[in-house]
Amino acid sequence: MTLTTDPHHIRDYSLTGADTIHARETGLAGADWYRTEVPRKVMKDLMQRRDGPALRDTAIWFALLGIGAWGGIAFWGTWACVPFWLLYGVMYGSACDSRWHECGHGTAFRTSWMNDCVYQIASFMVVRNPVSWRWSHARHHTDTIIVGRDPEIACMRPPNVFRLLLAYAGVLDMIDSIKTLIRNAFGTLSPAEKDYIPQSEWTRAIFAARIHMAIYGATLAVALLTWSFIPLMLIGGPRIYGCWHMLMTGLIQHCGLAENVTDYRLNSRSVLMNPVSQWIYWNMNYHIEHHMFPMVPYHALPRLHEVLKHDLPAPNSSILDAYREAIPAVLRQAREPDFYVHKPLPPTAQPYRMEIVHV
Amino acid sequence: MSDQVWTDVCDVEEIDAEDVIRFDHGGRTFAVYRAPDGSAFATDGLCTHEKVHLADGLVMDDTIECPKHNGRFNYRTGEALRAPVCINLATYPARIADGRIEILI
């Protein structure tokens, strides 16, 4: 089935609007997605869970957080504190996102309680309700970049370029996230949240928001009582001043690519990165691979990439290369919302699944 | 009297220890497992969350993890263990007889 494009169609990204109905009626919601054929024995090997890599990375992560906090406090008031806060900020405000993500999938560690423990810590750092965002992300995987179904579409069309640029400053997202937590803490879930969170989980979502807000309240109180910025530099603040790396890597996951398709190769982007960014991002630069096979843990994604690459568009060669592709596409979408980057496939690949395309 | 019958699935060697296969029979789909100790188990084939085939998932110890959203069940009891799965999975008796795996359905 090919659905024709209506040039006058205004996208409704809410989860309760016209595009939601459209997605259900056309079979885009909960569709069967294209996945590359991988022999069972190979996939079984790739899916294997281990505690070792995530224990090592988590120990390094906490050590870097500790060094950053120590130096930031010890040299407070001098220029020498700046690199320490930069380090602390990125470890807190950016690395938290990939830890939240991987532990939310339950794939970082083999041991369940370790995933749960790091998930709770990282959810707090990234200012996300640990209950509601678990369900939000499950929907993102069910209906990836399906308008009216996916609650995690970062680049809506036509794009608000000014807001996308401001996102790097971290302030707008922080304000939105805190407003959501406050609303949840007062016992209110939005219609969208009620759509993707089962009713049995609503009470837990409200409780989690109250815990988070209590910690933020206590942090603010300590800052006021001591008349010091340091508590805010340690808790909450890094989500603003340290989130730039999370946005730099996260916004290129899907921006400028297709909407309303059932082939991850059309709506997701894999990008080769420098090893530092790849460590902070926990290999989520292999994003097509992750969406096709979310049960493969982060430490096996480079191997999965080697297994799949004959069937995928070539990855962008660097973060810069990805932005060279995404920025013109997003700017063009401001004028032509139906435009998206259609990448060539290697000759060894199966053709794109194009039978359902409603750009 | 129950109309369930022991139904032949496959040779026991066709499923590795700590692995799962899909078994379609009578218009229904099942997941048939071998535990790490080699014993056989069977459940409904589709995840109770979004109807994804569990046979593409990962068997770890007593659990099966859904390949789409990483929800987990205990395949011996069918108990839902990890979000986003909330509804338990139906289980079926399974046995190994003369080198063949059979399930009671």
Record the SSE blueprint:
The complex is a heterodimer of chains A (359) and B (105).
Chain A: H1 18-26, H2 40-47, H3 52-74, H4 81-93, H5 95-105, H6 112-125, H7 132-142, H8 161-167, H9 171-185, H10 191-196, H11 202-226, H12 230-234, H13 238-241, H14 244-250, H15 264-267, H16 275-280, H17 287-292, H18 301-308, H19 319-335
Helix pairs in contact in A: 3-4, 5-6, 9-11
Chain B: E1 6-11, E2 19-25, E3 28-34, E4 40-44, E5 58-60, E6 63-65, E7 72-74, E8 80-82, E9 91-92, E10 94-97, E11 100-104
Antiparallel strand pairs in B: 1-11, 2-3, 3-4, 4-9, 5-6, 6-7, 7-8, 10-11
Task: Write up this protein.
By secondary structure, chain A is mainly alpha-helical. Chain A has one domain. Chain A is built from 19 helices and no strands. In chain A, helix 3 runs antiparallel to helix 4 and helix 9 packs across helix 11. Chain B is mainly beta and 105 residues long. Chain B has one domain: Rieske [2Fe-2S] iron-sulphur domain (Rieske Iron-sulfur Protein, 3-layer Sandwich). Chain B contains no helices and 11 strands. In chain B, the strands form 3 sheets. Chain B has a 4-stranded antiparallel β-sheet with strand order 2-3-4-9, with no helix packed on it. The mean pLDDT of chain B is 94.
Q: What's the number of structural domains of chain A?
A: 1
Largest sheet of chain B: 4 strands, antiparallel
H/E order of the elements of chain A?
A: HHHHHHHHHHHHHHHHHHH
The proportion of residues in beta strands of chain B is over 45%
- Using a beta-carbon cutoff below 8 angstroms, give the protein chain pair with the largest interface and the number of residues from each chain: A-B, 23 and 20 residues
The neighbouring-strand order within the major sheet of chain B is: 2-3-4-9
Helix-strand pattern of chain B, N to C?
A: EEEEEEEEEEE
How many helix segments of chain B?
0
Largest sheet geometry of chain A? none
